[in-house]
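User: Here's a chain of 127 residues. Predict its fold as C-alpha cells.
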Amino acid sequence: MFATPRPVPESRVPLIGASVVMVLAIPVLLIGGWRLGAWLLAAVLWVVYQGSGMVLQRLPLGMGNLASAGVVAFGRMLRAIFVMVILIAVASSDSGLGLTAAIVFALAYTVEFGLSLIAYFGGEARS
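Assistant: Prediction complete.
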C-alpha cells in the first residue's frame, strides 16, 4: 500500500474538495457572525495559491531540467510563505479578520492535502 514511486494522480478531485470547503465556509461564517471579508481574503489567497501551483505544475522536472526543477522547488516554498506572511500581517492589524481567514484557508488546504494523499496512495505503485 505504501510502496513508492507512484504516478502523480489527477489533482482535480482534491481541488474540487477544497473548493467545496471554501463555498461551505460562507454560510458558516454568516451563521457564526464572522465577517465575510475574512472569507474573501481566504478565497483570494486560495486562488493565488492554486494559480501559482498550476503555473509551477506546467514546468518540466527531472534530471534534464534542473533549472526548472529548482524554480518549482523554490516556487512551492515561496507560495506557502507568501500566504503565511499575508495572513500574519492581516492578523496583526485585525485579529478577527486574519484568524478567521487563516482558519478558512487552513481547512481548504487540509482537505486538498488529505484528498491528494488518498489519491496518491490509492493508485497502483510502479514496478
